[in-house]
Structures are given as structure tokens and as C-alpha cells.
């Protein structure tokens, strides 16, 4: 219930005038939207833990949409990474690969390479599940040679 009211407060544009303590974004609206993206991300994690796959997807997609809107590559990367994992776990390998490739692209283009090892792991598993063992093993090789 508390998380629902938290999201509702952040969705309300009238709250742009209030101070939102978040990343150093330029406008109060972006701070509110950044906080809303974070709230959807946390809600997605909660839905993962309660095994509510449908709501997990909805909240990570909403977090992704907001991250793209405010041009925040880190939030967008995390949403793509999680959506790829969800579709991998659901056996929807083509969708999983789309999101993991997007996460890898964001990671490289933004210089946020912290999550590349996880992206390589998921991409390797996806390729093996699609029957492309060679590509899968190549991603595992990249994973092993990734600088920490």
C-alpha cells in the first residue's frame, strides 16, 4: 500500500514543485520522474520476489519508458537488463535477446560497463537456449575476460 501511494505521488505532475532528493538532474520534473522510475524498478523487484511475472514486466517496462523519457542511461540499462532476464526465464529467447542487446549497447555507449558481465552471461545462456552454442560460448568467454 505504501509503495502504491509513493508511486501515485510521483506520478502527479503537481508535485514537480516539491523537492526530490535524487541524482543531480537539471529540472525538478526530471527528479520526480527519476524517482518514479526508481519506484517502478523497486516494485518490479518486489513482483519478482512474489513471483508475479505479469506485474514484474509491467513495472520494469514503465521504469524503462520513464528512463528513456528523461534520458537516463543507467535506469534504462537496468530496466533492459531485468526485462531480458524475465524473458529468458519465461523461455521467450528472442525478446530476451533484444533487451540484453539493448542493455549491452547502452552500457557501452554510456561508459557504464559495470553490468556487462551479467549481460554477457544472460546473452550466452539465451544463445545456447536458441541452439547457437558457439555464440553462447563466445559470450561466456567475454564474461571470463571482462575486467572487474
General description of the model:
- There is one protein chain.
- By secondary structure, this protein is an all-alpha fold.
- The protein folds into two domains: 1-71, no CATH class; 93-148, no CATH class.
- Helices cover 75% and strands 0% of the residues.
- The protein is built from seven helices and no strands.
- Helix 1 runs antiparallel to helix 2 (28-49).
- It starts with a helix and ends with a helix.
End-to-end separation in angstroms reads 39 Å
Percentage of residues in helical conformation: over 70%
Number of helices: 7
Name the average pLDDT. Answer: 88
What is the count of distinct domains? Answer: 2
Element string (H = helix, E = strand): HHHHHHH
Structure classification: mainly alpha
Radius of gyration: 17 Å
Residue stretches low in confidence (pLDDT < 50, at least 5 long) are: none
Please give the number of β-strands: 0
Query: What is the overall silhouette?
Result: globular
- Sheet with the most strands, sense and barrel status: none
Residue share in β-strands: under 5%
Note the main attributes of this structure.
single chain; 148 residues; mainly alpha; 2 domains; 7 helices; 75% helix
Task: Give a quick rundown of the structure.
With 148 residues, the chain is mainly α.
Topology readout:
Layout: H1 2-11, H2 28-49, H3 53-69, H4 73-89, H5 93-110, H6 116-129, H7 133-145
Helix pairs in contact: 1-2, 2-3, 3-4, 4-5, 4-6, 5-6, 6-7
